Prior knowledge:
Blueprint lengths: L12 H13 L10 E6 L2 E7 L9 H4 L3 E5 L5 E5 L5 H11 L8 E6 L3 H10 L3 E6 L5 H9 L3 E4 L8
Helix pairs in contact: 4-5
Amino acid sequence: MVDGGQKNRRPSWDDYFLELANAASSRATCDRGKSGCVIVRGKQVLATGYVGSPAGLPHCDDVGHLMKKVIQENGEISEHCLRTVHAEQNAICQAAKRGISIEGAAVYTRMTPCRTCAMLLINCGIEKVVCERKYQLAEESEQLLAEAGIELVYKYDVRQEY
């Protein structure tokens, strides 16, 4: 019991790992996609990652963004920074560098993985993806993860705003 006889409220495991993903995102070096990722199996953290340039290369925060415009199927134009590696990709790389299998693990991240990250997670054998919010172009990733039988959970049913 804490002060006043109130019981301490512990976060759920999903909320706890989402908080860790948010903490990892504070290391991001691109202010457009401040995202973090935590890979977990059996309630144990296996690897973390955040948005940042490849090791040894300049960061957006230091030299600016490397932007590319993409025309979506619906005609909408979106802009993406190509200087950085996504949080999910960095977490996968960290696990690989340390020889840690992530098969059967869960991924916790701030927003829906992009299409490329979703495909990587599928091939790594991830079983569950927990996101705080939806990525602006979430539909393709949602479909891929569903087709692969990967559970996708959102804490909030809202789109991530930049």
